[in-house]
Write a structure and sequence with these properties.
Radius of gyration: 13 Å
Structural class: mainly beta
Order of helices and strands: EEEEEEEHEEH
Largest sheet: 5 strands, antiparallel
Number of helices: 2
Helix content: 10-25%
Number of domains: 1
Amino acid sequence: MSITIGSHTFRTVEYGDKYDLLNVRNGDPESDADSDATPGGDAINFSGDWQVASLEILSPRYRLQHDGELVLTFPDERVVLRADQLVEVLGVAA
């Protein structure tokens, strides 16, 4: 399964409901060169050429239920997702 978030498409999508953690990535995690925290508290990882390689989204289901949206911040854009956009990824409606 792949997912597009804003202008970024990720080929690997993994959601763990035990910890409410969503990982989206392109390529091998070993190739990540650097990481940073986003303003929303998520972790964004960069490849050696400073392209977005992966994103670790903390508590996506909780945030959707509590806030009604999921705000993700990349270096080049801010993306707002609604629950209906993540039903397939999270497994059930948030």
